[in-house]
Every structure is written in C-alpha cells, then in structure tokens.
Amino acid sequence: MKWLLLLLIVCDAVPLQGLTTNVSARPQVVNIGSVFTFTSLIGRVIKVAMEAAVEDVNANPSVLNNTQLRIIMHDTKFNGFMSIMEPLRFMESETVAIIGPQRSTSARVVAHVASELKIPILSFTATDPTMSPLQFPFFIRTSQNDLYQMAAIADIVHFYGWREVIAIYADDDYGQNGVAALGDKLAEKRCRISYKAALPPEPTRENITNLLIKVALSESRIIVVHASFIWGLEVFNVAQYLGMMSTGYVWIATNWLSTIIDTDSPLPLDTINNIQGVITLRIYTPDSVMKKNFTQRWHNLTHVGLSTYGLYAYDTVWLLAHAIDDFFRKGGNVSFSKNPIISDLRGGNLHLDALKVFDGGNTFLESILQVDRIGLTGRMKFTRDRNLVNPAFDVLNVIGTGYRTIGYWYNHLGLSVMQPDELENTSLSRQKLHSVVWPGQTTQNPRGWVFSNNGRHLRIGVPNRYRFEEVVSVQSNGIITGFCVDVFVAAQLIALCSTV
Ligand SMILES: *[C@@H]1O[C@H](CO)[C@@H](O)[C@H](O)[C@H]1NC(C)=O
Ligand SMILES: *[C@@H]1O[C@H](CO)[C@@H](O)[C@H](O)[C@H]1NC(C)=O
Ligand SMILES: *[C@@H]1O[C@H](CO)[C@@H](O)[C@H](O)[C@H]1NC(C)=O
Ligand SMILES: *[C@@H]1O[C@H](CO)[C@@H](O)[C@H](O)[C@H]1NC(C)=O
Ligand SMILES: *[C@@H]1O[C@H](CO)[C@@H](O)[C@H](O)[C@H]1NC(C)=O
Ligand SMILES: *[C@@H]1O[C@H](CO)[C@@H](O)[C@H](O)[C@H]1NC(C)=O
Ligand SMILES: *[C@@H]1O[C@H](CO)[C@@H](O)[C@H](O)[C@H]1NC(C)=O
C-alpha cells in the first residue's frame, strides 16, 4: 500500500482557486493523505499504526510546534485503478507529499505524475527494486528494497551448497522484477534459477496446481516463493495436496509469509500444517525500549498482530513530521502553481489542469532525504542511492504454530547467528545458521535436486573395440558390459536410494 501525504492548508483566508495560492509558513493544520486498501492484510495494520503516529506527533510540541498533523485516508478497495486515481485526487487538492499506493505497479504510475508535480511519494510497500530514484526522483522508499532480501536468499542457497532454484511468482512488476533481482544475486554466487515458474497476477487454484505439477517434475527441489499476501498460502495448500511439503523439498518464502504469520497469528491449524519447515525472511528491526513500549501499547489498540509494516508505517509518519518541520525552518511555504504542460490539457471532463505543481517540492524532497532519526525500525536514514541504511533480515524457520529464528542476514556480512547489532564491531563474517527443521520434519539438509522425470536423457558413447574388454565392451547382442558400466550402475543405485 502506499499512501499519499498531502498538506492541505486549512485556512479560511487562503483562496484555493487562482493561479497561485500561498500561505504563511507554519499553518495550523497539515494534512497527510494516505491511500491503501483498509481491509487488506497490510491495511489493517498500517491504519492503526499511522493513527498512533499522528497522535504521538501532535502530543509532542517539539516536533511541529503548534501545527497539527492530520491524516486523511482513502480506501482503494483492492482496486488498481482506484489506487492510481485516489492519489491524483489528493494532488488536485494541493498535496505536498504522497504516501503512495500499495502496489509497485500503481506506485510506478503515480510516481511519474508526482515527479512532474514535484510532490514526494513515500512508500514502504512498493519494494520493487527497479523503482530507481534516477527514473523517479520524487519516489522515496521508506522500507527495504527487495534487492536485499533476494541477496539474502542467494546467500542461503549458496550456504547450503545448492546450485539451482525454481522461482514461483506472479507475472507482474513486483514478481518479475523481484525474481530478476534474485537471478542477479544468485549469479554472483555462481548459482541460478533453473525454472522461472510464473503465475497469472491473480492465479486460480487450477493455475497453481498446473504450475506445481511442472515444478514437481523438474530437477531442482529448492523452491523460492515470491508471492502476494492474497494467494501465497494457496501455493502451500496445493503443494501439501500434491505431496510437495515432504522430505527432500526446500521452500523459501520472501517476507510476505512472515507478514501473514505476524499479522494473523494464530493461523488456522490446516494452514500451519501446510507451511511446516518453510524458511521465510522478515525485515530485521533492532530490539529497543521504544519498540517494546509500542508493542505493549499495540495490544491495547487492536487485535490484529503487529507486522514490520506497522513499524514502518509509524516511522514514515514521523519521518514526514520531521521533514515538514525542517521544511518550515528553511522558510518553505506551501504554495502551488499551474504547470504549463498540464494546463494545455484543459477541457474535457477529466480536469487534469486542476493538478498543480508544488513550488517548494524540491526543498521539501531535500528535507525528507536529510532526515536521520532512530525509530521503531531502527535508524531511518537514506543512503546516496536512496535506500535505507543497514538493510538486514531475520531468517525464520516455520515450526509448530510459529517460527524459530535460525539466523540473520546483514548487508555486507551475509549470514550469521549473531544479531546485526552485535556484529557491528566484528569484521569477521560468520557464515552460519542454526539447524533447520525442513519439510518432512527432518533436520538433514536436503541435497536440493533429484533426477528429473522430464529431464534430458544422458547419452553415453562407448568404444566398440576388442582391447580392454574388462573395462568396457559391446556384446554381440548389443548389451554393454565392463567395469565402467558397473561403476556407473552402482553410482546410479546410490543416487536413487538417497532420493527415495
Ligand atoms: C501571496 O501571493 C501574492 C501574489 O501571488 C502576493 O501579492 C501576496 O503578498 C502573497 N501573500 C503572502 C502572505 O505571501
Ligand atoms: C514564504 O513566505 C514569506 C512571506 O509569506 C516570504 O517572506 C518568504 O520569502 C517565503 N519563502 C519562500 C521560500 O518562498
Ligand atoms: C513555536 O511557535 C511559537 C510562535 O508560534 C514560537 O514563539 C516558539 O518559539 C515556537 N517553538 C519552537 C520550539 O519552535
Ligand atoms: C488460469 O486458470 C483459469 C481457470 O481456472 C484459466 O481460464 C486460465 O487460462 C488459467 N491461466 C493460465 C495462465 O494458465
Ligand atoms: C517506555 O515506557 C516507559 C513506561 O511507560 C517510559 O518511562 C519510557 O520513557 C518509555 N521509553 C521510551 C523510549 O519510549
Ligand atoms: C492498556 O490499557 C489499559 C487499560 O486501559 C491501561 O491501564 C494500560 O496502561 C494500557 N497499556 C499500555 C501499554 O498503553
Ligand atoms: C562498538 O564499538 C564502539 C567503540 O568501540 C562502541 O562504542 C559500541 O558500543 C560498540 N557497539 C556494540 C554493539 O558493541
């Protein structure tokens, strides 16, 4: 979900029509607009978190002095079209920033418009690694880029000595670009994706079944699932049905799965049953008194579980509050003017000419990028390439009704059983994970591949001569015998036995 942050200056004297409107700095009210699907898995969490953040900002006069922060939320009801149009409606009403739509696909469209209108778009849900600040200067990701969790998965694959993985994903921006990043990161480790198993963006059970049958017939047993919250669990349901949640299989899910577990625990028993032994990632957020206080308070606010998206939603509102304050300190005014290009679009019923350019947009963007604060998610500060500093992930193994943390992944240091904070002072990379309970309740690390049922047949040439017959020779009936053949048959028997 993305949201839209907008500053609406509520001030009777200010004319909203006209070529340019201006107000004195430090208005009484600053409105934040946000656009997301209220009833979605993330929506239920971030709504509560954003409201809590606004309450806290307003209770703390040292942030915005006497200016009140107010949040306006629009429900996009799982509709891609709405998640593009709602932000545009905010832009029409003189918005200084947008916490953009939820999905990467919509974010991309809105980010194009926002760059033209100089209205920053903030998102902690559009994690598509190809949304680059070069292409979208006014797009700011306030959560971790998917590039890092793909690097973490590549490190896990490499750590266990596997070479090839199968990637299951939806054929949309989020899926394609995430999996492309996974391919790049695996290549750095001399590993690769042997089968890109794409599903339609809204797959049916039949689509998933057909795909998983093809997956089961492939050689690789390492399956990475980069799915959506909506249909991700269905993949495991079908996999269980097809007997693919059994010994020999390795399932690695990106952070969609940990988010579901965090938000909806306790999960129904059959769901829990379907995901036993799965490895999943979660964005690492350091333990702190602040986070502990907030977690306690959370249970008073809602019955929904607190996922990392809640923490990022809370921090994003604070980030904006600090940026708004900085913007006013620099003498910034909230004023908008007509964009000559857009004004040419006058006429028709769309009223696109109502979209105005935020005059202080560049300064405000700068203020956002300069924020450096400690929040619930740890340090919130942007690198020069506009990613958050210190990307890190928890590596989780789903066991019983919950999961066990088997280690951490930290940007430069890779995998470790030590928390990223503890690692800071050690230059040594300790590539290590605690032992995993894999599907089929085994702790023995899977080999990662089987002889495939649909793979290529091996063709072996043998010399047909009369010398060294004990090594290899062709009998008159065409049967090949000899020491080489015996070794080959024995090796194949061993391989088949360990597959079973
Ligand atoms: C607002 O802008 C108009 C011109 O566009 C100017 O005459 C007026 O003084 C400005 N008001 C303030 C408060 O800056
Ligand atoms: C903001 O408005 C005030 C007066 O309303 C003006 O003095 C100041 O120069 C303006 N600042 C900017 C950056 O335009
Ligand atoms: C808050 O605003 C008032 C005037 O509105 C000003 O006197 C005071 O210094 C400001 N406080 C801070 C902390 O900026
Ligand atoms: C997905 O399944 C539906 C029916 O359940 C079918 O009509 C559609 O063609 C399938 N799409 C793909 C890409 O297999
Ligand atoms: C955490 O809560 C305690 C007790 O309510 C309070 O004294 C403390 O200041 C809080 N700490 C932080 C960092 O919010
Ligand atoms: C939760 O609510 C109870 C009762 O309203 C209150 O006593 C308690 O202090 C609250 N806890 C937190 C962490 O806000
Ligand atoms: C790392 O070392 C610095 C300086 O030696 C120290 O101040 C800091 O507390 C250490 N950090 C951790 C997590 O031990």
Give a quick rundown of the structure.
The chain is of the alpha/beta class and 500 residues long. It has helices at 41-58, 61-64, 80-92, 104-117, 146-159, 173-188, 205-216, 232-241, 256-264, 269-274, 289-301, 308-329, 340-343, 361-370, 420-423, 483-499; strands spanning 20-21, 29-36, 68-75, 98-99, 121-123, 139-141, 164-170, 192-199, 222-226, 250-253, 279-283, 336-338, 356-358, 373-375, 378-380, 392-399, 402-410, 414-416, 473-474, 480-481. The strands form 6 sheets. It has an 8-stranded mixed β-sheet, with helices on both faces. A 3-stranded antiparallel β-sheet has the order 1-12-13.
Structure description:
The longest helix is centred in the middle third of the chain and has 22 residues, at 308-329. This protein folds into three domains: 29-144 and 288-380, 3-Layer(aba) Sandwich (Rossmann fold), CATH 3.40.50.2300; 146-278 and 405-423, Response regulator (Rossmann fold, 3-Layer(aba) Sandwich); 458-500, no CATH class. The protein has helices at 41-58, 61-64, 80-92, 104-117, 146-159, 173-188, 205-216, 232-241, 256-264, 269-274, 289-301, 308-329, 340-343, 361-370, 420-423, 483-499, and strands spanning 20-21, 29-36, 68-75, 98-99, 121-123, 139-141, 164-170, 192-199, 222-226, 250-253, 279-283, 336-338, 356-358, 373-375, 378-380, 392-399, 402-410, 414-416, 473-474, 480-481. Helix 1 runs parallel beside helix 12, helix 3 (80-92) runs parallel beside helix 4 (104-117) and helix 5 crosses helix 6 (173-188). The chain has an eight-stranded mixed β-sheet with strand order 8-7-9-10-11-16-17-18, sandwiched between helices. Strands 1-12-13 form a three-stranded antiparallel β-sheet. Strands 4-5-6 form a three-stranded parallel β-sheet. The protein is elongated. With 500 residues, it is an alpha/beta fold. The site of one 2-acetamido-2-deoxy-beta-D-glucopyranose (NAG) has 3 residues, from helix 11. One of its GO terms (cellular component) is membrane. Residues 1-18 form the signal peptide. Keywords: Glycoprotein, Membrane, Receptor, Signal, Transmembrane, Transmembrane helix.
